[in-house]
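User: Modeling request: complex.
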Amino acid sequence: MAWWNTFFDADHRTTIRGVVYGILGAAILLLLFWDLTDRKPPEDDKTHIRYWHIVGSENDVPYTVRKFNQIQDSIVVHATPIPWQEHEKKILTAVLSGNPPDVVSQFVPVVRWASRKALLPLDDLIAASAFDTTIFFPALWNEVTWQGRPYALPVNTASYAFFYNKDLFEEAGLDPENPPRTWNDVRQYARQLLEVDADGKILQAGFLPGFSGSHQGLLGNMSIAALIAWQKGVDYLSGDGATVTMNAPELIEGVQWTIDYYKDYDLAEVQAFIGGLGTGDQHGFVTNKLAMLVLDMSFLDLISQYRPEMNFGVTEIPSFEGDPTVSMAGSWWLGMPRGVQHPEAAWAFMQFYVQKDIQLEEIASRDDPLFPANIHAAYDSSFISKPLVDVFVRQMEFAHSPTVVPLVHGLFWREFYGALERSVRGEQSPEDAFQQAEATVQSALDRAVSYDRYVQSRMKDLN
Amino acid sequence: MSLYYSLCQYDVLRIPQYIGLENYRELLFEDPYFGISIWNTLVYTILRVPLAIGGSLILAILANQAVRGIKFFRTVYFLPSIITGVVLSVIWMWMFNPQIGLVNTALGWIGLPGPLWLQSTAWSKPGIALMSLWGVGGARMIVFIAALQGIPSSLYESVEIDGGGWWARFWHVTVPMLSPVIFLWSVLEIIFSFQVFTEAYVMTKGGPLDSTLFYNLYLYFKAFDDYEMGYASAMAWILLVITLAVTLLQFKLGKHWVHYTGGAPE
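Assistant: Request completed. Predicted assembly structure:
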């Protein structure tokens, strides 16, 4: 009998199985308890900081991190890419655990975190380093400020403008070099651009307020009613931050314009039409189905990717006669979570990130288009002289932050779009719809304010 | 912990503030979306559960025939059910597309005008309930097949001797013999339906006009959009109580229609 037959007899097999399972079990336990993410930095005289950024088009170390680590030798930045769906929860969990990264990059409204003390205020560091805060577009600086204190540095933004299809303009007998200047022009032009078949099915639309060409819903994206309200000077929140106004005449005017606009159309047909539009190369604007829309600068990239030969123009967002143009801009920002280990080193990295030259170099290093938060970078000839970019730069001067009621930001916009939809579908008058929304938001704001006072009195060390 | 938080104002990032039953009072008596989301979830459950169980039962009976290659067909029917969640929702978004979607194109072939589906307040809930047909060949079908194979053929033979046709075989033998399994699935499916979330989150975000604002979607908005963790915890507890009550009611009613061959379990 060969030796392996004795080796693999029934008794031995049980023993071998036991050993294999033992090794597997031990390996699993080891993996479970082995902290793979948070290894100790090398022991040298440098300061090692951790930077959590969102996974971009590439998973490698961002240009700014490589450059920063190159040009100085006292601080080392370790960058960790995190999928955007997980980013917010991961950072907040890290803050709660008391072991957060030193710097994070995010695009949720800063005040959503700042108002809950998840970020470190930067005013002391700014004062100590005489950092010039006027290098940012004012709307973006407002966006990172909560109760007079800055909590982050804006890095990039999405600037919005008005896109129109020159070929469709010509086919409809409109002058392609003379885009609409007012909202009433837009309505007039859209009537000329509309194409409907014998059954009433929309084949081509001029403009659909609230719709940006790739969303399933009717009023999901950039709300023209909100833009008109800002152009008219609406103020949603009282100075003390405790009273919200949504049933405001400025906003009702914008909503009424939207309602009147859709009276020219069969709403069910509009919805069916919107449902037929897609994304990417099927985007309504790219496929000549929608002639005009308000979108951000990254859309230029989508057009050049899918239809580089397209004949289109970009102009200022329209307004009513005598009103200023207005745009909306939120920001990508860098901040330091509460409980940060190396605030000085983190601050050095953050300052470096928003310098004009670095912003321009980062833009040049990426495939996807970025809009710098630094005004001097935006007005630099290497950026503003790119085709059509100047419109977006000028539009930033008139931008508003979408964070209008910081403590209940998410609810405010859910209620806003809900009331807008009820008004446009004729379920309620605009006044009733926005009065109802106002009551809901106010009730939540009251709760948030009273909770805020309670926390302030109990958590003094966080102020 | 969650029970305690349900009595607090709490945003995760800061300390909880005890406010007693305030969250429950607000939910039950003031919050309009609480009623809307309960109603939406209830309608969805009523539409979905019979569709899901009936569909699986019919498919199981078909897949239980002694036909050549039946194992292949069972596998084919099972395959769609391994696709779930977000991917499934995206597929259905295109199927429900009013102008170019598969569903309305198919309705067009038989001369029916297709509704706006996810963009219509009347059709959004039935549409999402219809999606459950996608998974009829999944676990439910497998369990039904197993149960069907456990029915003694002598029972069918006695129906034949009495001169009964296919309907008599189905109604007097198959259904009573399967009733414990049908009961099991109706309990489980109602619980699953109460938890509907992904479809609405991916496809409609609760719209149009809050017609797909399901309970768990609203709970999600409260917890992760508004950071009102205390409020969301209270919602979770209310859902638990509702689920428990409905399940107990089913067990009570089950006594009247569920047939246990070996006598009812105590």
